[in-house]
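Case 686 in the screening queue. Each case pairs one protein sequence with one candidate compound; here the compound is 2-(butylsulfanyl)adenosine. For every case the pipeline is the same: read the inputs, emit a complex structure as tokens, and attach any notable structural observations.

Predict complex for case 686.
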Amino acid sequence: MSKSLVKQIEQLRSDIRRHEEQYYVLHEPEISDAEFDKLLRDLEALEVAHPTLVTPDSPTQRVGGRLVDGFDTATHAIPMLSLDNAYSEDELYAFDERSKKGSTNKIAYVAELKIDGLSIALTYENGILVRGVTRGDGSRGEDVTANVRAIRAIPLSLKHGLVETLEVRGEIYLPRSAFERVNLEREGRDEATFANPRNAAAGTMRNLDPALVASRGLGAYVYQVVKDKPSDSKAEGLSKLSSHSQLLQECRSWGLPVEPHWRQCDDIDAVIKFCREWSDLRHSLNFATDGVVVKVDDLQHRENLGATAKCPRWAIAFKFPAEQATTQLKSIEVQVGRTGAVTPYAVLEPVRLGGSTIHLATLHNEQEIARKDLRAGDIVLVEKGGDVIPKIIKPVTARRNKGKGGPTPFVMPKHCPSCNSSLRRANGEVIWRCMNSSCLAKIRRGLLHFVSRRAMDIEGLGESLVKQLVDADLVQDFADLFALKIETLLTLDRMGRKSATKLVHQIEQSKKNSLWRLIHALGIRHVGEGVAVALEQGFGSMEVLGRATYDDLNDVPDIGPVVANSVQEFFGEKRNRDLLVRLKEAGVTMEGVAVEKESQALPLAGMNVVLTGTLSSMSREEASSAIRRMGGRIKASPSGNTDYVIVGKSPGSKLKKAQMLDLEVLDEIAFRKLLITLGSRMTDKE
Ligand code: IVH
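Case 686 output:
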């Protein structure tokens, strides 16, 4: 056995493991799915040729992703297998031959669209949804029942066909439209956007707040009935079904969501026709799909074919060809965010890719451009990440003009592209910022954040309208929004009386928002939603908050020096104080009463919670924010009226104090359970 072969295999394994971690654990893939599949196939090929080199820990020897910390673990009674992939029509013919097992008879298949989401096992007992478990490592997943319940596409009870225990499996996904919306909102808040809908769906399901799941608008489709108890007297309906297509119809009739475009195909040629049709048509769908799942229709035949340790032999996933194209990178421009962050993006020679024409691609920051050595004028390889956001994979350096006058490395501008003021970069940061608070680009971004759903929640004020308002000098700051009149709005492009009236009404309504919304909307650095709620709870009114000293701020549980400084800085500026006076004069709520009232109905209303130690699965901010959203108050240290003490790793003296006071102490798992239970109570009420 050559040493270099062993080395090659080891290298592949370590690369794959690293990419698996980026993808499955961190949800931040560095390479395309196609590139990843290629690595895996290379490794598989080497291992097939040299079986003695296969080790139990090789990435080829596992079923799927790996467990992520958090939530309760649940065991799958029947493992959730993966699927073999086919990348060409020839591979589909080969699959057909294997399925025929030497017979010449045609085999009927069901072709379904492969939904690009995360797989889920749903258990119904006596027709009631009792459990939702993610795939995890295939044998054990995470119990995400509370989050599953928050997905409206999944029925909480079945219409009929009750069997004692029924497990169906399917896919949870984020519709394209919701994905775009979520990313726009995140962009508006200067937060990292999700790379593709699958990551967004997975990220959503991993969070602990079912209300957030509900608000994201996740979808789901089921495609497999795993087990029923034939002995169950009520189950005769199921056991008489002999084909997968009948099962899908049955699922539909129970009220379960089934992706409607599946087709029964008499033979593999009909399957291939389906694959060809959908490789174009798929772009018209509101969910991302990267292939077609081909399944033997006859259930008895499936049983005869059985499964390998990893995949069933009766199904295969046909992957659509990777959506890549080459085009010219015309220029690298920069855009200005709300906080003044100036980030580069690529202007491309328009190119057809994945059913649409792309003109732009994200570039993140100057380091990324340097790492890929992208230069304006280069021919570049572009790909649609998860079929939605185009990204540049690499320059085609072989086609670069290397002579004089050829493309030169990108140089980050030193001045703001909007207002021309000098850009600054803090020590150790990668992001350059425009520090001019009157910069129009910043103002537009700031306004978009101000009106966004988690801030003032003013519907109907999109990007183009905000641009028109700012460019026409009708709105220069947040307070100007409240002076807008129907007649003024009517002077704008594409603005009818109905929309103008509705918008003015929405703006008017937003004046009654809870105070935390306004605090969040102001865009004070480091003041996210959770901190905004803490500030409202800590100070009760904008006036008191504005007068708070550094120490007052620091004394509020969960507010640290960074936030304290930033809040002080904000109120220290006369311009900001004047803005607040004008907002108040316009009638915008400056008192915290609304939240107090709202919180009466919440499950932790009036309860005092102390956090100590480090939680492994969420930040302190996330934990506090979840508690506050349920009406709880975060307290600095345990006392006689503390309701819960949540203890993470390396707790301080607070734990001892809690034990002395005989308070209810919850470890991280118990705390998660509490959140999930309370969270599902909240969604029940909706
Ligand atoms: S059937 C034994 N049908 O693709 C596995 N899977 O790459 C049965 N997927 O883990 C899976 N759409 O999460 C099936 N219509 C579909 C699917 C589908 C998406 C996912 C599923 C599976 C993965 C395999």
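Case 686 observations:
- The radius of gyration is 28 Å.
- The domain at 3-61 is CATH 1.10.287.610 (Helix Hairpins).
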